[in-house]
Amino acid sequence: MRMLKPVAVPLIAVGLALGIGAIILAVSGANPIEAYGALIDGSLSSQKTVGRTLEKATPLIMGGLAVALAFRAGLFNIGGQGQLVVGGIFSAAVGFGFEGLPWIIHAPMALAVGALAGAAWGSIAGILKATRGAHEVITTIMLNFVALNLTDWLASNPWKDEGILSRTPAVEESALIPLWGSFPTGFLVAVAASIGCWYLLERTNLGFEIRSVGLNGDAARYAGISVQRIIIATMAISGLLAGAGGAIETQGVIGRYEPGFNAGLGFNGITIALLARNHPLGVIPAALLIGAMEAGGSMMQFNADVAPEITDIIEALMLLFVATPIVVRWFFSRQEAAEVSVTAGWGSS
Amino acid sequence: MSDLFIRFRWVILTILVFVFVTLFTAEFQQAQTTAVLASALRQSTPLVFGALCGVMCERSGVVNIGIEGQMLLSAFVGFMVASATGSLIAGILAGMATGALMGAGLAGLSVTLQGDQIIAGTVLNIAAFGISSYFFQQGLTLPSGKTPQVSLGPLADLPVIGRVFFINRPLTYLSLILIWVVWFVLFRTRWGLWTRSVGEVPSAAETVGISVARVRYTNLIAGGCLAGLGGAYLSLEAVGSFERMMTNGRGFVALAVMIFGRWNPIGIWGAALLFGYASAVQTQLQFRGWLADDPQFIGMIPYVVCIVVLAGFVGRARPPAAVGQPYSRE
Q1: What does the pLDDT read at residue B102?
Q2: pLDDT value at position B303?
Q3: A169-216: per-residue pLDDT in tens?
């Protein structure tokens, strides 16, 4: 039983969440089998729907990585949403702003600019924390609202498309991240980012310093690590990941920046990081699961007449069972519950 | 009291500057100044409720980032109950009960199961969003209308202040009273002393016979009632209906307000008024058509003010020492 724990806990959690979700569906007068059938139908039944699940999972991986990496340094980045929209609009600007570039230059350039814009946005919160002690939970939330206003302004003034809608022009074909059949290539970028994060955290000096600061800031300081530098670097990398997620969304899915661009990713990034216990590679299956539910949600509404918000309830239940000690206590020994804590509280500088 | 003034000198100074600016920009036109200040108070009320919930939880050593969810679900349940029964009081009570229940759930996860508090709060947020959107039905109304306006006799006739503070709706008055109640409970009663000791050094509190679990449960449930009032305020007093995601980040802003107010109810009031004021100025500027072509820059004002104040004046606020750490008796 002990060996199975890392796999068994998430599986039990997902099963329990789906079970309770079925009860909620039944109580509210829907047919749970029909609803879950439609959910699977819309997410896993064909090449096209699997492609759609991967497409939905891609920004979720990036958002989840952004949150998970920050958590490893003891920082709580709720600003993924803001970093993502800033990254999205800057990659769109590069995407429609240059003409006649070859794909091999244009697409990576737009992706890089979007990622760097996200990094810049994320590092604002890092700098404010490191130099002024302003708590990142607050500054990142505030920066989310500022970012939404800023991108809205950019999309309705300097970078506005022709016509009445507040959106940017479509990006050039040479900046698009193409579909490969029905397989979204952006997904590979996200998987590469996950592996990159794992390497960074486990195999580099910077990663060691990030983890040290997260485990014990005072000890890290005594060991000669510049905690301030690590805070700024971590927030910048975290923003870089979220910004790249926005860029992939622009270049691979939407093809431009428009209002309502991936709203609500802020919550999802946190959920996914916690489902994955902040492990960069665990983020991939967690994001695939949430991505499948998002992809299937609309089919569920269409085929079974169930409001897609049920998936949010199921998500909350999954998080409840996987990230809190409930399942571990029920199915495993009491002592093992102690290792569940994954985030650092307010207190640590 | 005088040490409070010294401790909150930046908050007080900032508010004074802002009041002065209002008087100045309104060119001493009383009507507009009054309107801005009254709107500032209205905007600050849900933040006060949310931040008071936060301070109850955090002073006892539990981080509550689920305030957003508590307010959202309370707003929803309060509205549904008030809409079904026709009674606003039933709605408000239902909102409080919802908040309290969620507070108890947070306590169960973080105190009894000793789980991660940030995760527990995130669960509350997502669950509240999912439940309120899933069960929401369009087109419901409040048969009794919003909570009524009550003017407090002669006080309401005072210039400016009368209009701002003494012609309001019931939950707004309640929030103004609760600020002082929570302050009194936390800093002048035995329970408050217990709470603060549990929030600073729970093991020491336990050795003198205080039950950490009991203090945390009670505070989280009481705090949940406060957040529930904040939710009921939004749906039953401010708007008069429920909308999806109607809290719109106010629960998180309330956390900012709590930190800016240095975990003290009076400081919280100042911080909430500052943020409410910035929101009110934003609406006023939009109303007057300033920067009409670029309204987004006006929309940023409250958030930028919050960042600047936090980074510029407040510096490192010190949270209760035990906040965020599960406590186990060993």
Answers
A1: 97
A2: 86
A3: 998 888 888 888 788 889 999 999 999 999 999 999 999 999 999 988
- The number of residues making up chain A comes to 349
**Measuring CA to CA, which residue among B284, B272, B235, B227 is closest to residue B70?**
B227
Which residues sit opposite A180 in a β-bridge? A183
d(CA A262, CA B171): 36
Task: Name the β-bridge partners of B168.
Answer: B150
State chain B's mean pLDDT as an integer.
86
pLDDT of residue A160: 87
Nearest C-alpha neighbor of B116 from the set B174, B154, B65, B81: B65
Quick check: B239 pLDDT over 80?
yes
Q: Which of A132, A135, A342 sits opposite B116 (nearest CB)?
A: A342
Q: What is the pLDDT of residues B125-179, one digit of tens each?
A: 889 988 998 888 888 888 888 888 888 877 777 776 777 788 889 999 999 999 9
The residue segments making up the domain with residue A211 are 57-292
Quote the CA–CA distance of B59 and B216 in Å, as a whole number.
Answer: 9
Dist CA B20 CA B6 (whole Å): 20
| pLDDT beneath 50: ranges in chain A | 337-340, 347-349
Map out the domains of chain B with their CATH numbers. Answer: 2-314 (1.10.3470)
Element (H, E) at B168: strand B167-168
DSSP A66-127: HHHHHHHTT----THHHHHHHHHHHHHHHHHH--S--HHHHHHHHHHHHHHHHHHHHHHHHH
Distance from CA of A20 to the nearest CA of B (A): 13
A281 lies in some domain? yes
Cβ atoms of B242 and B84 closer than 8 Å: no
Find, in chain B, the residue whose alpha carbon is nearest to that of A313: B130
Residue A286 lies in a domain: yes
User: What is the full DSSP assignment across A223-242?
Assistant: TT--HHHHHHHHHHHHHHHH
Residue B129 and residue A329: Cβ atoms within 8 Å? Answer: no
Does residue A41 sit within a domain? no
- Res B285: pLDDT: 77
pTM recorded for the entire structure: 0.86
Residue A37 lies in a domain: no
- Amino acid A69: pLDDT: 95
Residue from the list B109, B134, B324 with its beta carbon closest to the beta carbon of A307? B134
Count of beta carbons in the 10 Å neighbourhood of residue A73: 29
Torsion sign, CA atoms A260, A261, A267, A272: positive
pLDDT confidence of residue B7: 67
Instruction: Give the C-alpha separation, B227 to B220, whole Å.
Output: 10
Decide if B114 and A325 are in contact by the 8 Å CB cutoff.
Answer: yes
CB contact under 8 A, A142 and B303: yes
Please give the Cα distance from B156 to B167 (Å, whole number).
Answer: 6
The answer to whether the CB atoms of B126 and A141 lie below 8 A apart is no
Our count of domains for chain A comes to 1
ipTM of this complex: 0.84
Distance from CA of B133 to the nearest CA of A (A): 6
